[in-house]
Design a protein that fits this description.
This protein is an alpha/beta fold. It is built from 24 helices and 25 strands. The structure holds alpha-D-glucopyranose.
Length: 734
């Protein structure tokens, strides 16, 4: 059977290889290890995990132990064909281990080396949540292309990216790694990432196999707590959380990583419905599924298996093809097949999938990476840095501006806030390959731009506000720029927060800055939406700058000084208070839509609206929308709207089109993003923007994954964000 990556002949080769493999060798292919985890401890690893899980050692102590742990590369097990993959980023060592696998093992099956190349390798780009605010498919693809080139030169074949978890809850730390709350935008992002990372041909040698994660609905973890339980109607899974994965599978994604969470009571790791029925059968996925780190072992604590032996059996039967260093498969699978508890055919299917990806990557033909390639990107190519700068600029979202920005030439700037001068904090979570010398802090970026800037820390992210430090720089200043937000460690994995306000005394810093009577700009440097209602009320200019990667400082300077007019649009809602979470724009109407009335979907003690809605982002110019029309032509809906640049500088606007299915057989969201178009306009310029969408995109899935197209009335919204729109009603007959 040929598949999307291999020829008939290559498939035949895999069958021949499979037929020669012993049970040990089959289990070996299903076994991935991370060298630093398997040996060198004075404590058995499971006990270490228990200690950190139970809080007997802190995460910091755990990472220190991990960093100092001796590496155990299991050479003998590689020689015996008992290992199929390593999680590592060490080109020289990878080649050595590969040589053992290819030249000293019985069948010479190459290893596949995986690593977390999430938003860049040596060239670190903005965190995914920031990059998604660019709404730019070309950027989504280009940053993945560059990351793939750099990572492959370091002998990494496979990245555990893109992360595609729809994120509707700002309390969840991993929202930082996600493309936000919308299925349509996340699906465009996922397709572009597969194209970028994998390239046109998987065996081109300058690309990476992707790993769609975390399958599935990890972002819906209850109360935004990481690893927490997930329950939802299957129709919600099919209409919201599955689409980015389905789109990426259609784009040719090579692997998928199962999520830590349970889904409706069954952990994804052992969820046969999700892994086999939905992913492999209904979505037609032909690559392989890898567990998340130690997740097969986690099934014991989920309470779905009695012990690791039970976990091994249940995972394999459910369709888990590779075990990421829980040692379940290497410990028990062979005996379970010999005892007839696990059909060997399931291992054959798993190994076939793994060998497919290795062959598609060209690892059988070219298993080694030439040493001279390893240093290829030790000096960053100019074009990589240029893309990092362009991506960073486009990811910045202007949240408020009462004629303060852009800064005027020659203005004396007092720059305050610990984060403004912390170059190591600009890369965000999951940036393991960066060099701090490549990083441009906001302070350095302003100096590079020739700004007249005096810096004082004045307040840490968690250390107290120092009034005298603020006074030391504001005296002669014309304007105060305060950089406030979160450190990298406050978002990402295992970093959920119940309080989303600015940590420490950073609001105090802003208050004191305002009290000087000088104009104040707040620059946010954060990995998630923050609840900043007082800042929104009090500070006249607010720039959402996220964690933008190595070129952050230059990008922020270009925006503050006006050489770049910000064009970013939020890919995630900013709640007004943590109590509003989960908060997202595409929610059902409910029988009593939130309104002034007490008897409606609202809180007694919180505003009705979020602070900033999905799709929101200002510009240094202004736009006017008029004359929306919505028509049907055969199988298309055609919307036209007139957009005018009514301000005094050129700008790029992302015109957004949403629809609402007013009456349907399931409650439907009040709005769903279905198209958008970027338009650049000179001051005074007016343009008719036309957007087309197939009528078929107006359908939705029911609980049985049937895609329903129901005649009826639809509202078509077009506007500058999900809240401020023009609306036309149409009746659609399918
Ligand atoms: C982590 C993360 C996953 C990552 C994997 C390997 O626990 O959940 O996103 O790819 O382990 O580092």
């Amino acid at each position: 059977m040929s598949n999307q990556w291999l020829s008939e002949m290559q498939e035949q080769k895999i069958e021949e290889l499979l037929s020669k493999m012993t049970l040990d060798e089959k289990v070996g292919q299903m076994n991935q290890l991370s060298p630093s985890i398997v040996g060198g401890f004075d404590l058995p690893f499971p006990e270490l995990i228990e200690m950190v899980t139970e809080g007997r050692i802190s995460h910091e102590e755990f990472s220190k132990i991990m960093q100092n742990a001796e590496m155990d590369y299991q050479e003998d097990n590689i020689r015996a064909g008992r290992i199929g993959s390593f999680l590592m980023n060490n080109p020289k060592k990878s080649n050595e281990l590969q040589r053992i696998a290819v030249e000293e093992s019985r069948l010479g099956i190459p290893l596949i080396f995986g690593y977390d190349v999430i938003h860049g390798c040596r060239t670190v780009f903005p965190i995914p949540l920031a990059e998604a605010c660019s709404w730019d498919e070309g950027i989504f693809e280009e940053t993945a292309r560059i990351a793939a080139r750099e990572a492959r030169s370091r002998n990494i074949h496979w990245t555990f990216a893109p992360m595609l978890d729809l994120s509707r809850d700002a309390r969840w730390g991993r929202i930082a790694e996600s493309p936000g709350e919308d299925p349509y935008l996340a699906s465009l992002y996922s397709r572009a990432k597969v194209r970028g990372f994998q390239g046109k041909k998987l065996d081109a040698g300058d690309n990476l196999a992707v790993c769609l994660k975390h399958y599935v609905a990890y972002g819906a973890a209850e109360s935004g707590q990481d690893y927490n339980t997930v329950s939802m109607a299957k129709s919600l899974l099919y209409n919201a959380y599955l689409p980015p994965f389905k789109a990426a599978v259609e784009e040719g994604a090579a692997t998928v990583m199962a999520a830590f969470n349970d889904f409706n009571g069954v952990p994804c790791t052992v969820n046969e419905y999700l892994l086999r029925e939905v992913l492999k059968e209904k979505c037609g996925f032909q690559g392989f599924v890898v567990s998340d780190a130690n997740a097969i072992d986690d099934c014991i604590r989920h309470g779905i298996v009695a012990d690791l032996e039970d976990a091994s059996k249940k995972s394999c039967i459910a369709g888990m093809d590779m075990d990421m260093n829980s040692h379940a498969y290497s410990g028990y699978l062979k005996q379970q097949v010999e005892a007839g508890e696990v059909p060997e055919a399931l291992l054959d299917d798993a190994v076939r999938r793994i060998l497919r990806v290795k062959m598609a990557l060209g690892l059988f033909k070219n298993p080694y990476s030439p040493e001279e390639k390893h240093t290829l990107y030790d000096v960053l190519p100019k074009e990589h840095v240029a893309t990092a700068l362009e991506t960073a600029k486009r990811s910045i979202v202007l949240l408020k501006n009462e004629n303060i920005l852009p800064l005027k030439k020659g203005q004396k700037i007092a720059l305050v806030g610990e984060l403004a001068d912390m170059s190591s904090e600009i890369v965000g979570s999951w940036s393991m390959g960066f060099n701090v010398e490549d990083c441009v802090s906001i302070h350095q970026g302003l100096l590079n731009a020739g700004a007249d800037v005096s810096y004082a820390k004045a307040c840490g992210v968690t250390s107290p506000f120092q009034p005298e430090e603020l006074q030391s720089v504001v005296k002669d200043a014309d304007i105060i720029v305060a950089v406030v937000g979160e450190t990298i460690s406050m978002s990402g994995e295992a970093s959920s927060r119940a309080d989303l306000s600015l940590p420490g005394e950073q609001e105090k810093l802003l208050e004191a800055a305002l009290a000087t009577g000088k104009p104040v700009v707040a620059v946010l440097m954060n990995g998630r939406p923050l609840t900043i209602p007082w800042v929104d009320q009090s500070v006249p200019a607010i720039v959402e700058a996220w964690q933008l990667g190595i070129q952050m400082g230059n990008a922020v300077a270009e925006v503050l000084l006006g050489s770049y007019n910000p064009s970013g649009k939020l890919c995630c809602t900013f709640p007004a208070m943590a109590g509003q979470c989960p908060r997202y724009y595409n929610h059902p109407s409910t029988g009593r839509p939130g309104a002034k009335s007490k008897f409606s979907s609202r809180y007694l003690d919180a505003p009705l609206e979020p602070l900033y809605p999905f799709g929101y982002g200002l510009s240094y110019t202004t736009y006017q929308y008029d004359n929306l029309t919505a028509e049907q032509a055969k199988d298309m809906i055609i919307a036209k709207v007139e957009v005018a640049n009514t301000g005094d500088c050129p700008g790029e606007e992302t015109v957004q089109l949403y629809v609402q299915d007013i009456t349907a057989s399931l409650v439907r969201p009040v709005k769903e993003l279905k198209a958008f178009q970027k338009v650049s306009l000179q001051p005074g310029e007016k343009r008719i923007v036309e957007m087309k969408l197939p009528k078929s995109s107006l359908g939705f899935y029911d609980d049985d994954m049937n895609y329903l197209l129901e005649n009826g009335e639809f509202n078509v919204y077009v506007g500058t964000n999900s809240k401020d729109c023009l609306m036309e009603k149409i009746t659609v007959i399918f």
